[in-house]
Amino acid sequence: MVKGSPSQGLLGTTLGFFFGFAAVSLYGPTAIKFKEAMELTPAMMGFLVAIPALSGSLLRIPFGAWVDTTGGKKPFLILMILSVIGLGGVTMLLNLAYPNNMHGLYGLILFFGFLSGAGIATFSVGIAQTSYWFPKHKQGMALGTYAGLGNLAPGIFSVILPFYLQSFGFISAYFAWFLFLVLGTITYAFIGKNAYYFQYLKLGKTQAESLELSFARGQENFPAGNVKDSLINSAKVKNTWALVALYFTTFGGFIALTAWFPVYWNQLHGFSVLKAGLFTAVFSIIASLVRVYGGKFADKVGGEKVSLISLVLVLLASITLSFDQSVVVGFSTTLLLAIGMGINNAAVFKLVPEYVPKAIGGASGWIGGLGAFGGFAIPPIMGAIASANGKEGYAMGFLVFVVLAIISIAIVLVLKRQHRRIVA
């Protein structure tokens, strides 16, 4: 009567998120093209590369909570379709107006960029959808694998895109990525599966019957209430907001830097678009891959401890990047930053089922949504610092992460102290 398995559920969400995240991978590496065509300031360019993260964060909140009533597949598909419309719109404008007629189109580019960011919002849907498939002792592994492999998209395409641009051109790249996103949407529609509980409900079983039958199949996590209830119940848990702050620093930071690093390497160090893209890709891929192992590590030693270690790495790396402008030290430090961010991202969602077991979807929405808002909020701030301080400002912008890391470390210390009291 029901279809799928935990491994199949994980495959569907991971592929869907990978395709959805790929939709916005063009904006950072191609920001220089928009700057030249529309004569953008650094602050305007920072806002342009950040705009997909705005929808990618805000839409996570309601769509993540929606999983608690539908299982995830329906909201996931809606977000993918919105992203297809956004990327298709940008592609159309570039075909019609680039490069000589782009003046006056900045607002429209931002609008389509906003829609494109819906692909990032699939994250919170996939987190909750995946979480319902797996028992509590495998949450770190499952969610780390989902997010880590899904997050590979911007890194992989940061490698591919510069070569594609050289061979086929700027506009062709947007059209190719648009077709890729359409293919991904169709793929998820066929592969994506809801956990057993939601399948039984769709078949007409009562809530009690669905719970009993799905529990017998190994499902351990179940929703409580509708979308509104899920958001309200999770919002009432104060640790939800602690996790939001931690995720803002490292996942919001990850999205921000994936978009900002091509600008940083180009403007501060004079790298070509190709070289800047490759350096950015290394950061993005390492941050994504380490997230897989960070989840397994958190399963073994605890999410709070792993989070604390990773945030110390983020703090050290951010201090170094703020004051050292050499290429060798800068590149080495970005690797340390990637490791810290990737590990903490895994540790945070290991803690969600422990802190908010009755409203995983709602909590995932708040954490994924407001946390990812950092991807929108941080680049314009870094751009403003660059505008005010000239070339050196591109390095000084990392002081933002110094402040965020210090705040996050303090939050984790409070969580650890709280956890010890509960155990005692």
From TrEMBL:
<feature type="transmembrane region" description="Helical">
    <location>
        <begin position="241"/>
        <end position="261"/>
    </location>
</feature>
<feature type="transmembrane region" description="Helical">
    <location>
        <begin position="329"/>
        <end position="352"/>
    </location>
</feature>
<dbReference type="GO" id="GO:0016020">
    <property type="term" value="C:membrane"/>
</dbReference>
<dbReference type="InterPro" id="IPR036259">
    <property type="entry name" value="MFS_trans_sf"/>
</dbReference>
<feature type="domain" description="Major facilitator superfamily (MFS) profile">
    <location>
        <begin position="9"/>
        <end position="420"/>
    </location>
</feature>
<feature type="transmembrane region" description="Helical">
    <location>
        <begin position="394"/>
        <end position="415"/>
    </location>
</feature>
<dbReference type="InterPro" id="IPR020846">
    <property type="entry name" value="MFS_dom"/>
</dbReference>
<feature type="transmembrane region" description="Helical">
    <location>
        <begin position="306"/>
        <end position="323"/>
    </location>
</feature>
<dbReference type="InterPro" id="IPR044772">
    <property type="entry name" value="NO3_transporter"/>
</dbReference>
<feature type="transmembrane region" description="Helical">
    <location>
        <begin position="273"/>
        <end position="294"/>
    </location>
</feature>
<keyword id="KW-0812">Transmembrane</keyword>
<keyword id="KW-0472">Membrane</keyword>
<feature type="transmembrane region" description="Helical">
    <location>
        <begin position="171"/>
        <end position="191"/>
    </location>
</feature>
<feature type="transmembrane region" description="Helical">
    <location>
        <begin position="40"/>
        <end position="63"/>
    </location>
</feature>
<protein>
    <submittedName>
        <fullName>MFS transporter, NNP family, nitrate/nitrite transporter</fullName>
    </submittedName>
</protein>
<keyword id="KW-1133">Transmembrane helix</keyword>
<dbReference type="InterPro" id="IPR011701">
    <property type="entry name" value="MFS"/>
</dbReference>
<comment type="similarity">
    <text>Belongs to the major facilitator superfamily. Nitrate/nitrite porter (TC 2.A.1.8) family.</text>
</comment>
<feature type="transmembrane region" description="Helical">
    <location>
        <begin position="364"/>
        <end position="388"/>
    </location>
</feature>
<feature type="transmembrane region" description="Helical">
    <location>
        <begin position="75"/>
        <end position="98"/>
    </location>
</feature>
<dbReference type="Pfam" id="PF07690">
    <property type="entry name" value="MFS_1"/>
</dbReference>
<feature type="transmembrane region" description="Helical">
    <location>
        <begin position="9"/>
        <end position="28"/>
    </location>
</feature>
<dbReference type="GO" id="GO:0042128">
    <property type="term" value="P:nitrate assimilation"/>
</dbReference>
<keyword id="KW-0534">Nitrate assimilation</keyword>
<feature type="transmembrane region" description="Helical">
    <location>
        <begin position="104"/>
        <end position="128"/>
    </location>
</feature>
<feature type="transmembrane region" description="Helical">
    <location>
        <begin position="140"/>
        <end position="165"/>
    </location>
</feature>
<dbReference type="GO" id="GO:0015112">
    <property type="term" value="F:nitrate transmembrane transporter activity"/>
</dbReference>
